[in-house]
Design goal:
alpha/beta
Length: 253
Amino acid sequence: MNRTQLRGLWHLRKAGEKPREERMPRHVAIIMDGNGRWAKKHRLNVSRGHRQGTETLREIIRHTDDLGIEALSLYAFSTENWNRPAEEVAALMQLILDFFASEIDELDEKNVRILILGDKSALPEQQRAVLQEAEERTGKNTGLRLNIAINYGGRAELARAAAEIAALARDGKLKPEEVSEQTVADHLYTRGQPDVDLLIRTSGEMRLSNFLLYQNAYAEFIFPEVLWPDFTVAEYDRCLAAFGRRDRRYGGR
């Protein structure tokens, strides 16, 4: 079954609604929240919650790719997450290695292009090398843009963009009056990609937590209460269906 057929099936599952491809978001962003609470609920170590969350992640990436969505951005590790207990940070760093070791072949075969959002230079050498290799290996792929935010902060991204633009102005390559919204967008990690259409944060928490602040300007927000390790493909489809029913006016009427 091809992607067009899959899109049609997804829309036909909504009773009485005709298949309308334009109702599908081009760019979905997910804050994968609730691993720690899931572990506590099941009386397990927090690292087990993160590992279970990785199982959910695999299914969501595959489903996103099957639906033909252009871009999927995932909040994996923020600049603030370094403040968590050392044992938990170590477990998260190991998950980076384990995830790419098990998934990179399939992702590459499916034409997925991986982009790491954030400052890789602050990561341990082994993790930094694995992420760099994943970006280089998939850099020419033309399918799903899989953005994984690691050591990422939205304010830091904007400060980085401002510094790059200021350097261009200093060197006489850009006049201050020429700086536009597009100029800023062109200096973000996600340059060349559409802005986020749909932001999903699991576990019921209702905040952005410094994630893609510029790109989420006109995103639709959905906050399912389910914890990330329990977030199923069916729950994801419900979020996509809810997005399809939204009336997006972008400040108009």
